[in-house]
Amino acid sequence: MTGNNTVVRSMHDLGLAAWFGGSLMGATGLNGATSKAKDPTERLRLSSDGWALWTPWQIAAVGVHTVGSIGMIFGNSSRLKHQDGATTSAVIKTVVTVAAAGVTAYSGVLGKKLMDNQAEGAEGATAPKASASPELASAQRQLKVCQWLIPALTSVLVVLGAQEGEQQRSFATVLDKIGV
After folding, report:
1. 78 contacts 29 by C-beta, under 8 angstroms
2. How far is residue 132's CA from residue 5's CA, in Å, rounded to a whole number?
3. What is the value of pTM for the model shown?
4. By the 8 A CB rule, do 53 and 22 touch?
């Protein structure tokens, strides 16, 4: 990696950390806490309110991560051209990022359906009551999957980022040995 890319690397990592951590906390903490509300109609309302408050931060986290990722691609262009496996790793990471962003966006669509149907109540944010409308029950079941896919996919991005860091170290060693 030529030059100092501290700003874009930090954007990449901090955006990803917020995206992963916020999603995991929401799926576990927020949904878990709201499922304990005594009134079933409060469960969806509280969960919807919490996720709505998180949404601008989630969008910012994904955006910051994306800008950092693009900056890192430009900053690593020489390594991507010349180091075995670097381009493949970057392509895989891009595909996983797009998938995670897509699941995140779709979760927002599903969350809106929950918000629109919150008066029905629920067992929990992603656990429908037996009497739930088909639309609400379907949205809750899908959202449960999506809310776990987001931290799963973003954790894969964390691992791929660590792998890229190791690739960069080995590339820097090669450049040092040949006097570049």
Report:
1. no
2. 51
3. 0.87
4. no
Instruction: Give the other-Cβ count within 10 Å of 165's Cβ.
Output: 12
Distance CA 125, CA 134 (A): 15
Cβ neighbours of residue 104 closer than 8 Å, sequence gap 6 or more:
19, 23, 58, 62, 150
pLDDT at 1 over 50: no
Backbone angles phi, psi at 29, to 5 degrees: -75, -55
- pLDDT per residue over 26-75, tens digit each? 999 999 999 999 999 899 999 999 999 999 999 999 999 999 999 999 98
124-173 pLDDT tens trace: 999 999 999 999 999 999 999 999 999 999 999 999 998 887 877 665 56
CA distances from 6 to 1, 49, 72, 76, 154 (A): 11, 36, 9, 12, 21
Q: What is the distance between the alpha carbons of residues 130 and 112, in angstroms, rounded to a whole number?
A: 21
Residue 179 carries which DSSP code?
T
Query: For residue 124, what are the β-bridge partners?
Result: 127
Task: Cite the beta strand spans of the chain per DSSP E.
Answer: none
Q: Where are the domains of the chain?
A: 6-175
- Residue 163 main-chain phi, psi, to 5 deg: -65, -45
